[in-house]
Fold this sequence. Notes:
single chain, mainly alpha
Amino acid sequence: MDDVKIGEILLPGEESEQEAKARKVERRFWPTLKRAMRQLPFSRDVVAAYYCAMDPATPTRTRGILIGALAYFVMPFDLVPDLLAMVGFSDDIAVLTAAFAAISGQIKDRHYIKADEVLRGEIPAART
């Protein structure tokens, strides 16, 4: 995956575009994560990124970058089909890694705490 494509995916975009992407992410995040859990080496970070992106207190630019990366993660059509075992999520991992680098330090402890609660099964993902 080339850097130009990743850069385009991570552009924060207009607020209306962010909101449309955020709605798609909210609908598709948990089913996609469930399919990807075995292949994602950093699923805790992905869940924390989801909570950071959905947090109204998160700066707009950070939300836009994370929503762009998460939208790419949940969309059924991307460069490498997610159905391919072991390589299907490799492009998603590249986009998410670039997003984490771009927003360095913006995912807060409260986002990780919520991610940990969900991943341990303490609270259902649908209610968070």
